[in-house]
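Tokenised fold entry reproduced for everyone:
>
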Amino acid sequence: MTSEMAAIPRAPSEYIEPAALRTLLKANLGLSARKVTVSARNSINYLTITIRDASVDIQAVRDLAASLSTWSMAIDDYVSGQSINVELTEEVKTALAGPLLEEIKRVSAKVVLNQGEGLSTGAVLWLTDQGFYIARSATGKRGTYIWQHDVRAGSEWAIAKLALDASQI
């Protein structure tokens, strides 16, 4: 995302239409409908950007979505504003995770409890008593936990999830 990003000036109570969001994606990131789609799920309050091409800069799309999202929840659980979420198609997930599957299998077999092992993406695969997870650094302890026995038993789902997380670091 550039500092010259086109924006839509609006109040938190005003909503972006899917067509306007598509226009912003094209103007700011050069993304056509072949690479990303925009849909309103259930209502205009919840827009979803679906990335359909693995070459798309996922973080730039997430940054744009976050800058436009006005969703908030009050202390009394009153929800207002518009939520803009980013999803990946299964094809994109597979393309991103694919190159890391063997590396995750290899590293998960040798990682030691409460220590991290570096991956080629710069991410770190950690093993704690709660399970495996991917972190951004050797000191970071944040990420999606995958139960230890799923990875050690060779669960394709668990290994693919870790590989997808590592590909996005």
